[in-house]
Amino acid sequence: IREAQRTAPSIIYIPHIHLWWEAVGATLKGTFTTLLENIPTFAPVLLLATSDVCHADLPEEIKELFMNDYEEVFKIQLPNNDERRMFFEDLIVNEAAKPPASKNTDWQTLEVLPVAPPPKPQELTEEEIRELEEQEEDTLRELRFFLRDVTHRLAVDRRFRAFTKPVDPEEVPDYAAVIKQPMDLSAVLSKIDFHQYLTAGDFLKDIDLICSNALEYNPDKDPGGRLIRHRACTLRDTAYAIVREEMDKDFEERCEEIQESRKKRGCSSSKYAPSYYHVMPKQNSVPGCKKTDPKCNEKTKMPAAPVDSSTPRSNGKLRFTRTSLEKVLNPLMA
């Protein structure tokens, strides 16, 4: 009864109230009547009860709940044969005899509604955006640690020395005319430092680029070219094997979600990415290096690295220098 008052308008339905009244005790009867009396007269709550006993034969407590004078008692007579026939005739003879309506016909009569537009993304507050960027940066930092480790393992492998630094255009003048998008492991490391990889898939695309450049520039005609091609394919397979074996699939999916989220937010780069000018050392000059000094490289102002005479050549031109990784990186680290 209290729930009916709380959810009004409502109906309190008691079928066969005379049987129920005989079955319950005096305490429940008193509680029941008290709760009903406490319902205000203006409350939209209807008490509906049925009984097979005439109103005059009901207990006095029940008769007081339903007053004849207020037209609260309705007597329903049993239907006779004519009334039953009138009720069921239309249902059985007419409605039941009709074939069911075709679903296709009903479908064609329905109005074709336009597709609802996707819901607008929830607007984040500045604090929520800051927390989201910090969470994303924590994940991408772990990615960079992993990619640096993979790149270092590839760079120290003697088989991949030819791919550790850019091809010298002075040694290979026609390289730029053949290869339009050069790539090497040192460039990969720079892209890692500048937060340009949001997924391991982006990293592997540059590894694929190193391999495809080597295959495009080095024809499969001489032993030197075949060796470079073989090592380029090995580099690619090794990188893929390390990433597939050591990177958790859920972590890569998380990175892809971050990449997609930044695209939707219009974030081309992270505010945590370092500036190029703050990371790269100044290369205006090197103490003790003169332009006339043949041992000084004019473009980088760094001491020129020695060239290994065993490097594969084609038509008398050096394709890839085979200097050791230490000789290449030591001047850069200095």
From TrEMBL:
Alphabetical list of InterPro entries matching this protein: ATAD2-like, Bromodomain, Bromodomain-like_sf
GO biological process, one term: nucleosome disassembly
Bromo domain span: 163-218
A GO CC term assigned to this protein in UniProt: nucleus
Bias kind Basic and acidic residues: ranges: 290-301
Organism: Scopus umbretta
Coiled-coil regions listed in the entry: 122-149
MF GO annotations: ATP binding; ATP hydrolysis activity; chromatin binding; histone binding
Similarity comment: Belongs to the AAA ATPase family.
Region (Disordered): 284-317
Key words of the record: ATP-binding, Bromodomain, Coiled coil, Nucleotide-binding
Protein name: ATAD2 protein
